[in-house]
Amino acid sequence: MKVGFIGCVDSSRSALQTLLGVDGLTVSAVVTRDQSAVNADFCDLTDLCYENEIPVHLEDPKARAESVAFFTSFDLDVIFCIGWSYLLDESMLALPRIGVIGFHPASLPNNRGRHPIIWALALGLKETASTLFLMDAGADSGPIASQVPVPIEDTDNATSLYEKILAVSTNQIARLGAELVEGTATFVEQEHSQATYWRKRSRKDGMIDFRMSANVIHNLVRALAPPYPGAEFGFGQKYISVQKSRIAVESYPLNIEPGAVLAKTSNALLVKTAGTEAIWLLDIEYGDIAVGDYL
């Protein structure tokens, strides 16, 4: 079975390595990029392609039709598209005999759309999923080939949840690859009436407002941990990044305003939040912020 592959992030590399190990599959061609301004977890796949003598095309975002033309000569049975920030046009979707397999780390049909790992953590979800599906012209709306729940622990952040989903998806891709070779793969239509969508986040979605509860702030911080750029708060003309936090166990008087700096160490601040709560912002460079300042 001849397979094409599209991707340019860490999960793409893992998926490509997995497909290379599936008996009966031949990765015939790869479309990737040599850089990406929109993917914090960008990964160069060209070395893996050269090592395995796989023809590779570096896509120009302004000339996507060239990727379709590149794949056309390989008579592909299926394409795996893992870690790609753009919808594919209909000419690409129609190219392989079976279709294009996509990946979305959420419980489809719930939570289609953008930034699923970030939103799942920021909103305090207790579970997400790793989903492989047959891509169509919509966003994450095609028939599901495989879906495995992934629990979200209170101790998880973007780094650990990313790793958990990557481990699950690797097994799914290996299993689906074998099923495609055997001709036993099945695709189940989504319940479109149950679909929900997450929007594209912007920088302001990562801004800490200390009128929030300590738990909401903590969820935002863990959602934007590496490979993402961190939550932020402003002080004077500066923005300070926060990638780690801890909710204070003590209670503080209700008449202390949110944003008051209650204590500090060499690399951490204790800040009053909503109600009687406070939160430690850890491993930060806070400059000349002092106890008693307001953030």
TrEMBL record:
Pfam families: Formyl_trans_C (PF02911), Formyl_trans_N (PF00551)
GO cellular component: cytosol
Keyword Transferase appears in the UniProt entry: yes
Domain Formyl transferase N-terminal residues, every copy: 66-170
A molecular function (GO) term: methionyl-tRNA formyltransferase activity
Keywords from the named record: Transferase
Family annotation (InterPro entries): Formyl_trans_C (IPR005793), Formyl_transf_N (IPR002376), Formyl_transf_N_sf (IPR036477), Formyl_transferase-like_C_sf (IPR011034)
Residues annotated as domain Formyl transferase C-terminal: 202-285
Origin: domain of life: Bacteria
Keyword Zinc-finger listed: no
Protein name in the entry: Formyl transferase
The organism of origin for this protein: Vibrio agarilyticus
